[in-house]
Amino acid sequence: MTRTKQNIETDFFRQLDRFTFSVRKRVSTVYAGNRPSTRSGHGIDTIGFREYDLNDSLKDIDWKAYARTEKLYVRQFEEEKTLTTHILLDASKSMDYPEKGTSKFEYAAMLAAGYAYMVTKYNDRFAISTFTQEIDINKPSRGRKNLLRAIDRLTEFELSGNTSIGEAVIKYSREIKSRSLVILISDFLQEPEAIETAVSRLSDHDLILIQVLDSTEKVLPLQGNSKLIDLETGEEIRTYVSEKFKERYIKKLDDHSARIKKACMRVGAEFYTFTTDTPIFDAFYYTIRRRRH
Description:
Blueprint: H1 13-16, E1 35-40, E2 45-51, H2 63-69, E3 73-81, E4 85-90, H3 104-120, E5 126-131, E6 135-136, H4 144-155, H5 165-173, E7 181-186, H6 192-201, E8 206-213, H7 215-219, E9 224-229, E10 236-241, H8 243-267, E11 270-275, H9 280-291
Parallel strand pairs: 4-5, 4-7, 7-8, 8-11
Antiparallel strand pairs: 1-3, 2-3, 5-6, 9-10
Helix pairs in contact: 3-4, 5-6, 6-8
């Protein structure tokens, strides 16, 4: 049964206020999050003067300095460079699990909202976009209003369709205009080749992959004759779940996650796995603590 309304809690935002979202300066000098650089003419704080040259605009000349020295000077400012954060959120039907309690999508949406909340503390731009076979692209913007609109949209979201992470990333990567922070949140229960392609395509950015699973998907708490339903296709599979079957399933899932992690390590990206019974703040604490070292 499809949920008509997603339950996206935001109370944990207060706990996030004690942290800063540290981003490794791996990408390029366009990075922000309180990363200062100097330029002439405009900015935040004056840090000095330099002599005027022909490439400077006349409007940047400090005429008071000219009156004192009879030489042309322009002010130099410290400028805060800004970081754009792109959050891609899996909205396929497989994320609508389980029917009761916190679904994978709800947990993933809280992660997305939490990262966006931390970005707003620096007044940086962010966008939360959702994908299935297609991708619903939202343009990056600043501010709490943008965050509240994004949360409202996710709250009313109806999940549908299959996951096509490769196609979604191909389309979205064309929209990223500069090196950015990209956070990809999904259960990643798709062909590993497609995920590896997505990681490779986004490898020029500061990239984080977060796998969200339900705890039952990690341990498969079934026994005997069982009916399994593919949430994306609706296909029913009847099988006998033995202890040997469980062992093979858990090993296959572990191997799948390990392959994704290896793909991330090759390009310097980060990969995390959380189950929906992990307190949401703990998930943030773990990823932020890791990024500080």
